[in-house]
Amino acid sequence: MSEQSRNTSQLIRRLQSGDQRAFKDLFDLYQQDIYSTALNYSNSPSDAKDITQEVFIKIFRSISSFQAKSTLRTWIYRITVNTALSWKKKHRKHQDPTDLDVALTHSAIDDSYTGQTLPDTSQNLRASMSLLPDNQRIALILSYIESLPRQEVADILNLSLKAVESLLMRGKKNMRRILQNQESKS
Amino acid sequence: MKQERDQYRDIEELFRANQSQLRSRAPAEFWNDVEKIIQTIPVRHIGTRSLVAAAAAAVLLLGLNLHILANPDVYAPESNSLTVEQPSELSISNFSLYE
Predict the structure, then answer these.
(1) Are residue A65 and residue A145 in the same domain, yes or no?
(2) Which residues of B touch A175 (CB under 8 A)?
(3) Do A145 and B15 touch (CB under 8 A)?
(4) How far apart are CA A9 and CA A7, in angstroms?
(5) Distance between CA atoms of A39 and A45, rounded to whole angstroms?
(6) Which domain holds residue A8?
(7) Do A118 and B5 touch (CB under 8 A)?
(8) How far apart are CA A163 and CA A148, in angstroms?
(9) Domain chopping of chain B, boundaries
(10) How many domains does chain A have?
(11) Which of A183, B24, B76, B99 has CA 20 to 30 A from A71's CA?
(12) Residues 3-22 (A) with a CB less than 8 A from some CB of B
């Protein structure tokens, strides 16, 4: 057993015994993973804070039933993704366009993507990602921003490895369309 | 497939170049908000609950075993429940391998 997995096992035991300080340790360890996933998904810092808060409450409430069938990190990311998806369902003010073409027509992202040039800020990337279908956006976030191994992304999303690869491919293809669309508008 | 993967290398590069900005941390004081909420939630101790459940199950099993030992007649099969008729002259000498 590696040092890291020993520490994680100890942390789980402390959490399950209700050690309040263990929650602070858990927060320090995973807050960036949770918050950045929530922020890149919602594209709003205040929404990301709400989602992150909800995720920690869910972890706190259900850590007693965590049976280590997956790693703690995988479990936490799964809670984060599910919370973000249900949060969006609960709070969305308008129906999202299901067709990317419709989304592109209505997009008002101020960006100047010129082929090889990178967009100036991460803000533009987040805004572009917000036009993607949920599953593609989440697969891109987990793979290219959170840098998780493909198998872990598959475990989090409860998909096969092949399905994740396919989602990533479509996500990247659509990202390029969005960025090219912005370029042609500018 | 590899060709298709390479086709989107620029998009992957975009994410890589912006990764540190995209991986933001929550504000430092954020823990205080989370902590306040967590403190209002009653803690459920899986360890304690499991121990109590295991102890209760052990006591029940022990009680059942003691009851069986103290009342063997109650748990013994009825005498006529399974009767096997014994052959009257079952002996190895009745058989011959060379017949």
Answers:
(1) no
(2) 11, 14
(3) yes
(4) 5
(5) 6
(6) 3-91
(7) no
(8) 16
(9) 2-72
(10) 2
(11) B24
(12) 13, 16-18, 20
